[in-house]
Specification:
Elements lengths: L1 H21 L6 H8 L3 H7 L3 H23 L5 H16 L8 H8 L6 H24 L4 H22 L4 H16 L11
């Protein structure tokens, strides 16, 4: 049983690394077999389809990424934790293996809205939004859910710009926009966000 768990972990790590670097459609099963050292027969015993394998690999990435993100924004006041998002993103954008958001990339590749891969991408964004919403609620904003959605746009926008341009300082620009947002909508200044 331990051997099966080790094989599965090796397989998921290799699959995640390959699809993140090169895309889902461009990553064939031969490449996964070669990178993981797991036989095709063993792969299909664990995951009956490539989609099921990709879904499992993305779930693993979601869990690991969220743990990293939460740990990197876990100290200070709620507003300090919100602003800590952007230096944390800058460190990620500067990594040599940065290829953007794996979940946006996956959703962009998969046209089928009913795909399990799209469902995992959506789940990741929902988890990220829920965490940011905890922070905006703790800050005391009048509309914490809307504030959290705006922060998610800053996070994902900076990630997309950094991926396309290769410039990690997209996180700095997003961080400055976040500071303005926090200052403008701070409960202490008595301003309310514009109504739609």
């Amino acid at each position: 049983m331990l051997e099966d768990a080790s094989i599965q972990q090796r397989l998921l790590q290799a699959t995640e690394r390959l699809i993140y670097a090169g895309g889902i459609n461009a990553t064939g099963m031969d490449a996964i077999v070669k990178a993981s050292g797991v036989s095709r027969k063993s792969i299909y015993r664990l995951y009956p389809t490539k989609e099921a394998l990709v879904v499992a690999a993305l779930r693993e990435r979601d869990e690991r990424w969220m743990q990293w993100f939460i740990a990197g924004t876990s100290t200070g006041s709620p507003s300090e934790r919100l602003l800590a998002v952007f230096p944390l993103l800058r460190s990620w954008f500067s990594a040599p293996d940065f290829h953007g958001c794996a979940f946006i990339n996956a959703a962009g590749e998969i046209g089928d809205l009913e795909s399990e891969i799209r469902a995992v991408a959506l789940l990741h964004k929902q988890r990220l939004l829920a965490y940011v919403n905890e922070l905006t609620t703790a800050c005391g904003f009048a509309e914490p859910e809307e504030m959290a959605r705006q922060f998610l746009l800053l996070i994902d926008g900076a990630t997309a710009v950094a991926m396309v341009t290769g410039q990690a300082d997209a996180a700095d620009s997003a961080g400055r926009a976040a500071q303005l947002l926090l200052h403008t909508l701070s409960p202490s200044n008595g301003l309310n966000p514009p109504q739609a």
